[in-house]
């Protein structure tokens, strides 16, 4: 099969799938933006979406659409160049969220396209309006959001098939399209991401080594921002430290913004919240470690007594599933994406996203009685093995899906 991946930050979600297709002998190509990374066996072509004359002015509401149109034009030009050299494509796999696939049906007519359905912007009932403290909705903000949905809806109109990592994320697509969406997660490599004896975490700046049995609470996000609940988490720390004065909290993540509203210029959400908390927390027992290598993250999951994962109703983070794969006892927010994975009391514990007292008391209970939670730890890992394992569940389903599409067959496993 000749397969073309299109993703502005290749390989993105396709690292495992692209590698598996190369390994079985498919000819795999990719078109990506300037930050795309090479993958062994994949013919990578990078595009530059910046026009030579600069970006022309436009109405503020459609600036996002213009950016996506520029990417679509750059990808189309790259494909035209490759076609002139004899490019043959049996299947296109890509993420439409950045606009790169907007005109794919015009430059590659008749070629089936598999779209990544990561999240379709919702005017209500999901992330927007969930946290009124951080972001107030106005008719102007709703208008901008409505127009940001336009490229996503155009992509849905053109898709041959969609691929979503979770049922909830697939459900953000309008009901008319759901019959053409398969739900298959990217997959967790449970051979590597697993419980292991002898785990430890060294906090060099604090001169500490943490091991299983220590009172350790972990919190992880790409960036420490409200979408991933950093405000709710930090604000409950004074109570948690009162209840468990020996507990150590390890917080992983950068200080930028991946999603949602930025903090005031010149600060970060972390800085803003620490200023708010002032002297109400013992800073010597709260360890901000920034971003860490993946292997260190997994070691933290093996060491922690419990891991806290909070999110708006939004895209589910890999960190939740990886923590569960390591056997961590997860305390998650009772929001729809998390509730798809965790049944409270069975394979994790759930608390209200905004209820700091309940969060602190639940964490304190776990720290006080960790020996009573072995069944939750085992069930957490079993959930990942049964539903999200890369080798036995997700990758075989992904390969079957791409083979069916490339052969013109109707895929199985779409949403009802």
Give an account of the 3D structure.
The structure is a single chain. This protein is an alpha/beta fold and 416 residues long. It folds into 2 domains: 2-187 and 390-406, Glycogen Phosphorylase B (Rossmann fold), CATH 3.40.50.2000; 201-387, 3-Layer(aba) Sandwich (Rossmann fold). Helix content is 36%, strand content 16%. The protein is built from 14 helices and 15 strands. Strand 14, helix 11 (336-339) and strand 15 form a beta-alpha-beta unit.
Distance between the terminal alpha carbons, to the nearest Å? Answer: 29 Å
Mean pLDDT: 92
Query: What is the oligomeric state here?
Result: single chain
Helix content: 25-40%
| CATH architect. name of the largest domain | 3-Layer(aba) Sandwich
**Count of domain modules:** 2
> Uncertain regions: pLDDT < 50 for 5+ in a row?
none
Q: Rg, please?
A: 22 Å
Task: Provide the CATH superfamily of the largest domain.
Answer: Glycogen Phosphorylase B
Q: Give the neighbour order of strands across the main sheet.
A: 3-2-1-4-5-6-7
């Amino acid at each position: 099969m000749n397969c073309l991946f299109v993703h502005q930050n290749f390989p993105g979600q396709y690292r495992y799938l692209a590698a598996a297709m190369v390994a079985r002998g498919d000819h795999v190509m990719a078109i990506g933006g300037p930050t795309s990374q090479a993958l062994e066996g994949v013919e990578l072509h990078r595009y530059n979406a910046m026009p030579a004359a600069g970006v022309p002015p436009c109405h503020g509401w459609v600036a996002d659409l213009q950016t996506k149109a520029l990417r679509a034009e750059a990808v189309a030009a790259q494909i035209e160049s490759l076609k002139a050299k004899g490019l043959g494509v049996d299947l296109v796999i890509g993420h439409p969220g950045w606009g790169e696939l907007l005109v794919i049906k015009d430059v590659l007519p008749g070629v089936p396209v598999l779209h990544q359905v990561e999240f379709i912007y919702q005017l209500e009932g999901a992330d927007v309006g969930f946290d009124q403290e951080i972001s107030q909705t106005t008719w102007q903000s709703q208008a901008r959001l409505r127009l940001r949905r336009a490229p996503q809806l155009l992509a849905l109109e053109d898709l041959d098939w969609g691929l979503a990592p979770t049922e909830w994320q697939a459900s953000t697509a309008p009901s008319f399209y759901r019959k053409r969406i398969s739900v298959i997660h990217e997959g967790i490599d449970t051979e590597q991401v697993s419980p292991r004896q002898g785990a430890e975490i060294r906090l060099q700046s604090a001169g500490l080594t943490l091991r299983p049995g220590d009172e350790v609470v972990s919190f992880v996000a790409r960036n420490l921002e409200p979408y991933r609940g950093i405000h709710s988490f930090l604000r409950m720390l004074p109570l948690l430290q009162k209840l468990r004065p020996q507990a150590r909290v390890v917080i992983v993540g950068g200080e930028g913004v991946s999603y949602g509203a930025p903090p005031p210029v010149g600060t970060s959400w972390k800085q803003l919240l620490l200023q708010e908390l002032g002297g109400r927390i013992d800073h010597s027992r709260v360890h901000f470690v920034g971003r860490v290598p993946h292997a260190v993250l997994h070691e933290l999951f093996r060491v922690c007594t419990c891991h806290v994962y909070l999110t708006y109703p939004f895209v589910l983070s890999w960190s939740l599933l990886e923590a569960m794969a390591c056997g961590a006892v997860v305390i998650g927010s009772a929001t729809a994406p998390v509730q798809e994975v965790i049944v409270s009391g069975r394979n994790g514990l759930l608390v209200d996203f905004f209820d700091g007292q309940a969060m602190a008391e639940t964490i304190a209970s776990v720290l006080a009685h960790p020996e009573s939670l072995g069944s939750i730890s085992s069930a957490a890992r079993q959930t990942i093995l049964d539903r999200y394992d890369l080798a036995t569940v997700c990758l075989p389903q992904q390969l079957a899906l791409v083979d069916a599409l490339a052969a013109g067959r109707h895929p199985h496993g779409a949403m009802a």
